[in-house]
Design a protein that fits this description.
Blueprint: H1 2-13, H2 17-36, H3 45-52, E1 68-69, H4 77-90, H5 98-108, H6 115-123, E2 135-136, H7 142-152, H8 167-170, H9 173-179, H10 185-192, H11 199-217, H12 222-229, H13 234-245, H14 250-257, H15 265-276, H16 280-289, H17 294-309, H18 316-321
Helix pairs in contact: 2-4, 2-9, 2-11, 2-17, 4-5, 9-11, 10-11, 11-12, 11-17, 13-15, 14-15, 15-16, 15-17, 16-17
């Protein structure tokens, strides 16, 4: 397998630059996600420090997530949304079809025998009773639960009215990557609304999509490009760039911007990591050390840095151990 994987990496590296960056973006997102799952949703940076010390935090040997336990090499529920969207598109000759996507989601995430449904049943109403946590198995996101519920009830679009987590971006990474570097914002809006109809979230996801698109295009200043396109997030981008220019500790900035899955924190904290990273691997490690909703950020961070630094910048030993399936 290793020799075949190495040969495949070489082929990807030799593709036309934009195409190669597209592949590296998708792979980079999934790998960054898998690197992080064993330390996901630890909201104390002090606790994270005690766990990892000065060691490499990727693919941590013991699972410390307070919510779920996954084997090393597995991807989170966030990352799996992107992988399953990619799979649904592949099964449809590469075309994005909302109804076929939701049928696939209902089969993959929603079948009673799905690992997601098994662990969902075990965890129960975890907000009232945490005794079943951490649950062994993947954690299904509430956005996916609502998507499937609304689809089965004939509600369209299927997104929640108030969802402002990162699902609306992560789930549609394959579509964003496919359209890059010239995004169709109206088509993306329609797709994002399958996850969330909350205008604030939809707007932020379009900004994030454009950011990734600029990295795929090969822009020398992707963040500045996006700042000039979208006026609504200028303040958020400026707050991040100002903090970094003042040499404020990046973990403090992540804590200040927001460590959770919700917007705008997940967007701003991802920017902190993306702007600082001198390599793909460094960005992934810094994202983990910053603690919080690692996988919500890792998918955007990994996609942007994968596109920026290329497929060969992703450590081979990371590529070799990831299994993008539950």
């Amino acid at each position: 397998m290793s020799s075949k994987l190495k040969a495949l990496i070489e082929k990807v590296a030799e593709l036309e630059p934009v195409v190669s960056r597209k592949v590296a973006a998708m792979v980079g997102a999934s790998i960054a996600d898998a690197c992080s799952v064993r330390l996901e949703w630890i909201y104390s940076q002090q606790r994270m420090d005690k766990i990892i010390g000065d060691k490499d935090p990727t693919f941590w040997p013991d699972c410390h997530s307070p919510y779920y336990i996954l084997d090393n090499g597995k991807i989170s529920g966030y990352g799996d949304e992107a992988v399953q969207t990619l799979r649904a598109m592949a099964q449809n000759q590469g075309a994005f079809d909302a109804h076929k996507l939701l049928e696939h989601y209902c089969q993959y995430f929603g079948d009673p025998s799905s690992p997601y449904q098994v662990s969902l049943k075990i965890r129960g109403d975890w907000k009232k009773d945490t005794s079943a946590l951490p649950v062994e198995g993947p954690w299904i996101q509430k956005a996916v639960i609502k998507m499937m519920e609304n689809y089965r009830q004939g509600v369209w679009p299927t997104g929640t009215e108030d969802g402002y987590e990162h699902d609306g971006l992560v789930a549609f990474l394959p579509l964003i990557i496919q359209q890059s570097p010239k995004l169709n914002h109206e088509e993306l809006k329609d797709a994002i609304k399958l996850c969330t109809k909350f205008p604030y979230a939809v707007g932020h996801h379009l900004v994030e999509a454009e950011l990734l698109s600029k990295f795929i295009e090969g822009s020398e200043h992707p963040v500045e490009d996006v700042r000039n396109i979208f006026s609504g997030t200028k303040g958020e981008i400026d707050a991040v760039t100002k903090g970094l220019a003042e040499h404020i500790d990046h973990r403090y900035l992540v804590r200040k911007c927001g460590m959770a899955c919700e917007l705008p924190g997940s967007f701003m904290s991802s920017l902190v990591i993306i702007l600082r990273a001198n390599s793909y691997a460094e960005g992934v490690r810094e994202n983990i050390r910053a603690a919080g909703a690692l996988c919500a950020r890792a998918n955007l961070v990994g996609a942007c840095l994968g596109a920026k630094f290329g497929i060969k910048a992703i450590p081979f030993e990371w590529l070799d151990r990831v299994e993008c399936s539950q």
